[in-house]
Design a protein that fits this description.
- By secondary structure, the chain is mainly beta.
- It has a domain of 144 residues: Beta Barrel (Lipocalin), CATH 2.40.128.
- Helix content is 1%, strand content 44%.
- It is built from one helix and 35 strands.
- The strands form nine sheets. It has a four-stranded antiparallel beta sheet with strand order 1-35-34-33, with no helix packed on it. A four-stranded antiparallel beta sheet has the order 2-3-4-5, with no helix packed on it. A four-stranded antiparallel beta sheet has the order 9-10-11-12, with no helix packed on it.
- A hairpin with a 3-residue loop joins β25 and β26.
- This is PQQ repeat protein.
- Pfam families: PQQ_2 (PF13360).
Length: 418
């Protein structure tokens, strides 16, 4: 197979013409109210109204939402964590911390406890009735959280040296604390914690830690600069210094290693290994590699900057940026089948594209002040939404709903997706 085979493009959903945001977003809908106290319906631009919107009194800003089977969890500027009922937005849980809450809470799919980091520097565990279960004081002023079945991991990325701390979700016992060179928690899973660890100013290595106590299971040799590393329960892949290497998750044995040259910053594990790369024409492209052998399967061009890659069992969706003829920047989405066939390509009406979410029938393209919902099958735009207040948004997408925090308004809403 040549290094970049001829591009195969499906016709379904393809759309070459440029569209303006005015045409895509449509017109405002009227405002109406719901019966739940504190909840209301709000206008969408060319799309359905939300099922509910909840404005929190005294909260002028909202943090990113998390979702369980019964609640939408969001921290607010009024220093409290709210658990809002999914069906109507009414309050089921309210827990007050010592500072505004700006990061996303974490929780199991059902029940509690819920974990939240506050700008007072403390990490809190809250049970399903809204009572404090435990609290670790002074952990970090800015942090990200991730939870597995047996571990809560907190990444303090505001300190001069990033620190990863592992906790027992129920008791709050500290299992480990380690300096890392990561700004994300992509390598945290039920049975392993894969992180980048600095060795010097210009060298680092990939390390696998036990979730139980943080002990080192295996580590790679020291390499120049900082690698990009991702992991799941079956494979660990790292890209650094012109090489892509796959490791066994249990023992760190090298499964395969290939030379890749200069590549971009995006590395994703799915049915295949996906890696962005810079092209001579100024655009970026996506490379796909076989998980078992490391063989390059295909390479396809996209826009000039890849912003998001979302992999599913049967496809991969790539969000990038393109130039509009009137001088603006627009978000573009490409869907590729596993053999590299481009199923569709859509230029959205969004002035940027920060992330993608994929459900059984929809693709949700997100920027920080709006989102656009497309057909997963054809790439056709179904509807778009941008707040009339121009508030920033933070989303959590579920199979039938989009839950949105209005960062600058102190509100949360639920939109129907199907």
């Amino acid at each position: 197979m040549p290094s970049e085979p001829p591009e195969r493009t499906g016709s379904a959903g393809s759309r070459e013409q440029t569209v303006t945001r005015r045409e895509v977003l449509g017109t405002l809908a009227a405002v109406s109210s719901l019966s739940v106290a504190g909840c209301s319906s709000i206008p969408g631009l060319g799309g359905p109204r939300p099922v509910w919107r909840r404005d929190i009194d005294g909260a002028f800003m909202a943090g990113p939402p998390a979702v369980t089977d019964g609640l939408v969890l969001a921290g607010m500027q009024d220093k409290a964590l709210y658990g809002l009922r999914r069906e109507d937005g009414s309050t089921a849980v309210r827990f007050e911390t010592g500072g505004p809450i700006e990061t996303r809470p974490v929780a199991p799919a059902s029940g509690g406890p819920y974990h939240v980091h506050s700008t007072d520097g403390d990490l809190y565990a809250v049970d399903s009735s809204g009572d404090e279960l435990w609290r670790d004081e002074g952990t970090a002023h800015r942090a990200r959280l991730v939870r597995t079945g047996s571990l809560v991991a907190e990444l303090d990325f505001a300190a001069p040296e990033s620190t990863l701390t592992g906790y027992d979700p129920q008791t709050g016992d500290r299992r480990f604390e380690r300096a890392v060179s990561s700004y994300s928690l992509d390598g945290v899973a039920d049975d392993s914690v894969v992180v980048r660890v600095p060795v010097s100013e210009t060298e680092s290595r990939v390390v696998s830690l036990s979730p139980a106590d943080g002990s080192v299971r295996w580590r790679t040799d020291t390499q120049r600069w900082y690698p990009r590393a991702v992991a799941d329960s079956q494979l660990v892949v790292a890209a650094w210094d012109g090489t892509l290497t796959a490791y066994g998750p249990s023992d760190g044995s090298v499964r395969w290693r290939i030379s890749i040259g200069d590549v971009g910053r995006t590395l994703v594990l799915g049915s295949q290994v996906y890696l962005s790369h810079d092209r001579p024409d100024g655009r970026q492209g996506l490379l796909a590699f076989d998980r078992e052998t490391g063989k390059k399967r295909w390479a396809n061009p996209v826009g000039y900057q890849i912003r998001a890659v979302e992999a599913t069992d049967d496809a991969v969706f790539v969000g990038s940026r393109v130039d509009d003829p009137d001088g603006r920047i627009l978000g573009r989405i490409d869907r590729f089948d596993l053999d590299g066939t481009r199923r569709w390509q859509t230029v959205t009406g969004l002035p940027s594209l920060d992330s993608l979410a994929v459900t059984g029938s929809r693709v949700v393209a997100v920027w920080d002040r709006g989102f656009e919902v497309l057909s997963r099958k054809t790439g056709e735009t179904r509807w778009s939404y941008e707040p009339e207040s121009h508030s920033r948004l933070s989303l959590r997408v579920e199979p039938a709903s989009v839950f949105a925090s209005y960062v600058d308004d102190g509100a949360v809403a639920r939109f129907p997706l199907e």
